[in-house]
Amino acid sequence: MATVINNSDWQSSGQIIENIIKEAGKKHICPKCGKEDVPCEITLNGVKRIVYASNCDCYEKEQKAKEEQKRKEWLQEKFKNANIGKRYIDITLDKLEAMGTENIAAAKKYVADFNPESGASIHMIGEFGNGKTSEGYAIIKALLPKFNCVSITWNEIVTRCYYAKAFDSSETIDQILKWLAQFDLIMIDEFVINIKDDKEINLATALFDNLYKDNKCFILINNPCDIVDMKKVPRLGKLLDRVKDQAEIFTFKHESYRGVKNA
Ligand SMILES: [Zn+2]
């Protein structure tokens, strides 16, 4: 245990240094590796003194390991907050590239250029099972050490908002939208709006108004047929026009290879 040297009113800085030298004049043995401190001779105000310095890097190593562990826990917490499914934990853009997933070069560029203030967004459009969601997760994973990201399906948003209303939850729709807005990147998967439900259309409009107003970055994932359906509703058509303005389109044309390559 380190001796605590406190300053007090009557101590001059000279006395503090004297106390430090006195403390350094004690020889310690490292409790980890058992190495003894090595003596060093110093001259202070013309007086020769012996002080001891540690002879191993156990302390530094321990501090580094603690930092590393803290960082690991912090990243795990970020993963949890990002709502990344267990199935996707190990996915990276490099792995997807090796599997032949489309738009990887553009995805890597998006990650490299990412600026949460820019509003830069992606609209992934393609048939079921050709790697859109995996690529979205891989982008989030690449950004997570530096940024806060979240992945959520449209259905999850709707369920949460309806729950808020139906069960008089303390969480309001406004709070849910604010919660989403705190992230640097929001990925909305399976963006299929029930076009027969006015409440869902209102919710989608409110959400995208907020994203647009705050210049938020998002990744939106769609099947082409969903877009055809949504365009039948004028308000959703307008929403999709805005998305088109803000987001780069990643088209996925490959046939589904789900099951074949576990994508
Ligand atoms: Zn040691």
Salient structural properties:
alpha/beta; binds zinc ion; 7 strands; Rossmann fold; 2 domains; 263 residues; elongated; five-stranded parallel beta sheet
Overview of the molecule:
The protein is of the alpha/beta class. A five-stranded parallel beta sheet has the order 4-5-6-3-7. Helix 8 runs parallel beside helix 10. It has two domains: 13-56, no CATH class; 87-252, 3-Layer(aba) Sandwich (Rossmann fold). It is built from ten helices and seven strands. Strand 5 (185-189), helix 8 (198-213) and strand 6 form a beta-alpha-beta unit. The site of zinc ion has 6 residues, from loops.
Report the CATH architecture of the largest domain. 3-Layer(aba) Sandwich
Radius of gyration: 29 Å
Terminal-residue CA separation: 53 Å
Question: Could you say which small molecules are bound to this protein?
Answer: zinc ion
* CATH fold-level topology of the largest domain: Rossmann fold
Question: Tally of extended strands?
Answer: 7
Element pattern in H and E: HEEHHHEHEHHEHEHHE
CATH superfamily of the largest domain: P-loop containing nucleotide triphosphate hydrolases
In helices, the fraction of residues equals 40-55%
Flag low-confidence runs: 259-263
Fold blueprint:
Elements lengths: L12 H12 L13 E7 L2 E7 L4 H25 L10 H6 L5 H10 L7 E6 L5 H12 L5 E5 H13 L6 H9 L3 E5 L8 H16 L3 E6 L1 H7 L3 H13 E6 L11
Parallel strand pairs: 3-6, 3-7, 4-5, 5-6
Antiparallel strand pairs: 1-2
Helix pairs in contact: 4-5, 8-10
This protein binds zinc ion.
